[in-house]
Every structure is written in structure tokens, then in C-alpha cells.
Amino acid sequence: MLYIEIKQLKERGLNPSQIARQLKISRPTVYEYLSMSYEEAQAWVMGLNQRVKKLDAYEEWLVAWLKEYPHLSAAQIKDWLLERFPEVKVGDSTVSEALCGAITGEVSDSKAEIYASI
């Protein structure tokens, strides 16, 4: 866990800038973790997995389209999504990430790897 690594480096005498460089993270992130207790950091990390994402409500559509048309690209699916749901405001990377999440266990792993690389 990043929190533990940051605390260990701090105990070794590294300053926040050195910790940030060592872990390849931003200084504000180091300061944020240093100001947290272990329980707060744990709750924050657990909360990341429970976030509602923009395309969660459309996951059934995404999976259905990919099952019926497995050759579709993320850009094509985004176009179809915007045609059917014009109120959706998303970028290409959001659609690609949603497809990776939607196809986990739904379509072959090779398709997941393809969308992860987009």
C-alpha cells in the first residue's frame, strides 16, 4: 500500500520531494498521505473501488454491442452510444475504460487487452 511506503520513507529521513521522486508520484500526493492516519488511507483506497462511473448505467448496452459485434472499436461504440443517448458527455478514454470494465469476464481476454491498449 502506497501509504505504508510513504510512511517508511519518511521514517528513514526522506523529505516529501525525495519521497515523491522515489515513488514517482506528485508532492501533493505525498503530503496528502502524510496527513492521513492508516485508517483514513485505507478508507480512501476502498472508496476508489466504489465510485460511480459515467458509463456504469450503460454497461448492459456496451456488453450487448460487443457480444453481437465483437469487431467494433471503442470509437464506433462511442458513436453508437451518443446516437442513442445524446445526453452522455464522455471522452474517448472514458469509453475505452468502460469497455475494458464491461468485457471483463464477458468477452475474451484478448478483446480486453485490445481495448486496454486503445
| Assembly of the depicted chains | single chain
Helix content: 55-70%
Continuous helix count: 8
Instruction: Give me the Rg, rounded.
Output: 19 Å
Share of residues in strands: under 5%
The major pleated sheet works out as:
none
Shape label: elongated
Distance between the amino and carboxyl termini: 28 Å
- Mean of the pLDDT scores? 84
Order of helices and strands: HHHHHHHH
DSSP strand count: 0
Low-pLDDT windows of residues = 105-112
Structural class: mainly alpha
Walk me through the topology.
Layout: H1 2-11, H2 16-23, H3 27-34, H4 38-48, H5 59-68, H6 74-84, H7 92-103, H8 109-116
Helix pairs in contact: 2-3, 5-7, 6-7, 7-8
3D architecture notes:
- This protein is mainly α.
- It has helices spanning 2-11, 16-23, 27-34, 38-48, 59-68, 74-84, 92-103, 109-116.
- α6 packs across α7 (92-103).
- The longest helix has 12 residues, at 92-103.
- The radius of gyration is 19 Å and the shape is elongated.
- 14% of the residues are buried.
- Residues 105-112 have low confidence and may be disordered.
